Amino acid sequence: MWTHRLFAFLAALCAISLPACAHGPKARVAANGATPTLVAGGLVQAPSLIEGDDSSDDVEMRAAEAIAQRGAETRANLPPNELTRDLLYKFLLAEIAGQRGNVRLASKAYMEIAQVTRDPRVARRATEIAMYGRFNDLALDAASLWVEVEPESTAARQALVSVLVNNNKLRDAKPYLQKLLSADKATIGTSFMQLYPLLGRHSDKNAVYSLIRDLAAPYPEVPEAHFSVAQAALVAGKTDAAGQEARQALKLRPDWEPAALVNAQALQRDSNVKALEFLQGFLAANPGARDARLSYARLLVAEKRIDPARKEFQRIEQEAPNNADVAVTIGLLSLQMNDYDLAEAKFKRALELNYRDADALRYYLGQVAEERKRYDEALAWYGKVNAGEQVVPAAARYAFILAKQNKVAEARTYLQGVEVQNQQQRTQLTQAEAQVLREAKAYQESFDLLGNALDQQPDHPDLLYDYAMAAERLDRIDVLEAKLKRLIQLKPDHAQAYNALGYTLADRNIRLKEAREFIEKALKLAPDDPFILDSMGWVNYRMGSLNEGLEYLKRAYSQRPDPEIAAHLGEVLWVQGKKAEAEQLWRGSIKEHPGNDELKAVMKKFLN
Questions:
Q1: Helices (DSSP H) in 100-135: which residue ranges?
Q2: What is the pTM of this model?
Q3: Rounded average pLDDT over 584-607
């Protein structure tokens, strides 16, 4: 037993290039914290830096023997180093620090060893431990050293590129990416397909686009190169360039579905109809392109072409009757189309097929039941959501149903008792509780609850917005204006903050010019938002521009037949003398939304 332990310890020491020891090949930190070591053509588990030494005696013996066998083969390519007291101390420091969870200290210690020994295996170890711990500063130093001591290593260049991107150094990453792309022409397509996922997380999307375009320029005959540029262009908002590059990829590979989907997305930014026409042609030539057919079906729904959409769904299902993803997609689209029977059937079918996120399906089934006003059934489904992203939304919906049943106190108790994983989830539940109070017309309690939460997180964007809306209910316009302006300072692209500020002023018929300016800013940020279109219509009406206001309100209502939009649209129609049309609109909307206060108020004003 002791002999085996000694062999394992000596094998670990040989991670450093030492003439007195056999030399093992490079190690890498795995995702689970274990440290696989390549020996004799296979993988064995060496003592783990992160998890501690839990390897068996047999594994230790095999590792030591294999490392000894391979040592003579690699010694000539490694720098000569002697095992000094200082190196041994730093090695032990690194290992013990890692086993005790101090990954930063372990990384720094390995970096010091690498700087002294200039051993590429130790530089790699330092790099990967720093990356594991997300210490970008240490990772950059370690990866740079690794490339310096092993300049032909593809793994070293890949690591350095990843670290440079994480450190927002795209320009510095460019020469390494060029070398990686040119290193193996046989896999150039695969390399380009990996390029955008690597660079796409960088915040400057225009810079990413420019870099990928430059990298792709030497490869005009590689379809993946054009595709990578198209991806980057689309995210950067350069739709013309995205479409052009996607079409070039399709010229080189006419049946390539990913390129077709990017081209459809680029066309969709301009017109759903253009995207539909393109996809229809692509599907005629490639009838088995399932993702393209799903996109085609979604666009048909967006254009409210329900019957053709249903046919596409049926065709997709016939081709993949046991595909849970297809069943969920059809269920979600059916839910969007208010076809609750089909949505319920597909979600239940996906459960039978063991869909990977069963809790999401339970949440969707709760939505279906709630839309049908089967509240007990909805509560049962929502109550079964125990994990995943839908836990908080399900809890909120559960509480809202209780509140509809006049069980406000029970709803609040339920929300307060939900177990959360982090502060963000607790904040979301507080927002839900405030909404329960608001819908119960307990406006002061809602305001106070949000105020207490905001005291703990003064610059939380969602709390600032909700607190401002609660202040509006109490006619505290000073608070509303202060909080929304603070929110705009923190998030200048927050369209709803501009809209809420402008609409509040317009609705009170005060500072109308200023109100319009706020709403115009909101509309530039979100030009198709129906509520912002409603605000623009309303402020124009307040300023006496009835025809212009009417156009905005009609656009808003066509996109979303909301009762408050109906109230505004009907009032403008009434004032224009189109009283029968206004009354018909109001009465149709009140049937769907009998409890809406704003709709009831406008009908009382003009019809009674």
A1: 103-117, 120-132
A2: 0.59
A3: 93
